[in-house]
């Protein structure tokens, strides 16, 4: 064999080994999902914006304890303690088989990134902003569900309905109990870096039985000066605006939304823990908005969780929301909500649940008018965020539900 041929053979073998090297990297991909279906009753149901004609309704409900979904998530060891990670998650209606957001295959999450135990993680794609990531452990939805137990209409974004497209999110490693996170979602509007963007910053402290988090988030409408919610807005779901309810219906033309929240929790023992939250939410008008004064909502809530046995979980919660007087409103809107939940564990993957909720609304709020502006109406009740499009026509609303959830 010639020297030249021997050298060529060595190069070919070296290239082959190099090309095959990634096959030896440790990696994993997991298929997972949740199916959650039940039956619910509400004392009054009408269309959004209506204050008359409500009737009681019994219907099949889904994604109540946890949103029905399936997904793929994975990680690959890149060496040096660094891993590549990804997650693709699709929500669906278990009662009909339809996508939870029509036109979006992976409507819940769709991101890729890198993570390192010493330096933190950086991910890019459709995901939850830092505000939710840090505050979620203290959210009322943990034990009361978002469907029945989120603060009215999920006004403060402590449930999972606000997902941001085009998001870069960094989360630090945990240092002495502290974790910090920041995210920025690019609107991609030509000539403007700010229009349509979402940005957030948050921090969390968790050590022993004590937990505390604070977060801020701003969502910008991609429509210049406010008005109809622009499709380039990063919290858009196939062009639709999240979080429209009887509470915020008259403010959906805002130029921007701002949320500041504080959450805390304390674990007494293996049976009892308590969590509490406070939030300040502002809907900011622009020149194209249908309202003129900043709408401000303050909400406080508390949840007590009791686990008397390994198979049982019980919880009770209360929240109070009050709006400011603005935009011709002479009596501030107020919402008081009471929640109970019961969960029975059948197995590691399957459980049964029951939920009861009551809300009382008082005062006035805004609703869109047929002329394109807004007008003042009496505030009506809307439990959690599962009834955003089907609120009560009156000031009171009772809701009960029961279902089964299976995780795979």
From TrEMBL:
UniProt GO molecular function: porin activity
Protein's membrane topology: Multi-pass membrane protein
Gene3D superfamilies tied to this protein: Porin
Keywords attached to this entry: Cell outer membrane, Ion transport, Membrane, Porin, Signal, Transmembrane, Transmembrane beta strand, Transport
Residue span, Porin domain: 15-362
GO CC, alphabetical: cell outer membrane; pore complex
PANTHER family assigned: MAJOR OUTER MEMBRANE PROTEIN P.IA (PTHR34501:SF9), PROTEIN YDDL-RELATED (PTHR34501)
Subunit architecture: Homotrimer.
Protein name stated in the entry: Porin
Source species taxonomy: Bacteria, Pseudomonadati, Pseudomonadota, Betaproteobacteria, Burkholderiales
């Amino acid at each position: 064999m010639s020297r030249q041929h021997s050298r060529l053979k060595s190069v070919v073998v070296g290239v082959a080994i190099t090309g095959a090297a990634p096959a030896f990297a440790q990696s994993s991909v997991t298929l997972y999902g949740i199916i959650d279906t039940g039956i619910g009753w509400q004392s009054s149901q009408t269309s959004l914006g209506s204050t008359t004609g409500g009737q009681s309704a019994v219907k099949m409900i889904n994604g109540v304890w946890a949103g029905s979904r399936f997904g793929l998530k994975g990680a690959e060891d890149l060496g040096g303690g660094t891993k590549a990670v990804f997650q693709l998650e699709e929500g669906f209606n278990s009662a009909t088989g339809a996508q939870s957001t029509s036109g979006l295959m992976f409507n819940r999450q769709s991101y890729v990134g890198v993570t390192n135990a010493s330096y933190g993680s950086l991910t890019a794609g459709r995901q939850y902003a830092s505000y939710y990531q840090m505050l979620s452990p203290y959210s009322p939805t943990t034990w009361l569900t978002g469907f029945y137990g989120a603060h009215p209409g999920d006004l403060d974004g402590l449930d999972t309905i606000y997902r941001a497209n085009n998001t870069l999110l960094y989360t630090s490693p945990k240092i002495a109990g502290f974790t910090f996170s920041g995210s920025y979602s690019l609107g991609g509007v030509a000539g403007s870096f700010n229009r349509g963007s979402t940005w957030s910053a948050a921090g969390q402290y968790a050590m022993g039985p004590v937990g505390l988090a604070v977060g801020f988030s701003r969502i910008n409408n991609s429509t210049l000066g406010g008005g109809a919610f622009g499709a380039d807005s990063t919290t858009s779901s196939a062009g639709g605006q999240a979080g429209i309810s009887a509470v915020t219906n008259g403010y959906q033309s805002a130029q921007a939304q701002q949320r500041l929240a504080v959450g805390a929790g304390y674990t007494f023992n293996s049976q009892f823990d308590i969590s509490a939250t406070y939030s300040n939410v502002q809907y900011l008008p622009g020149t194209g908005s249908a309202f003129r004064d900043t709408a401000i909502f303050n909400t406080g809530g508390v949840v007590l969780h009791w686990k008397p046995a390994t198979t049982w979980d019980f919880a009770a919660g209360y929240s109070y929301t009050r709006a400011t007087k603005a935009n011709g409103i002479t009596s501030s809107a107020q919402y008081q909500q009471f929640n109970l939940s019961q969960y029975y564990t059948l197995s590691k993957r399957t459980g049964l649940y029951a939920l009861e909720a009551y809300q009382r609304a008082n005062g006035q709020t805004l609703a869109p008018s047929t002329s394109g502006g807004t007008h003042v109406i009496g505030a009506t009740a809307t439990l959690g965020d599962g009834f955003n499009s089907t609120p009560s026509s009156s000031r009171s609303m009772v809701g009960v539900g029961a279902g089964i959830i299976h995780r795979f």
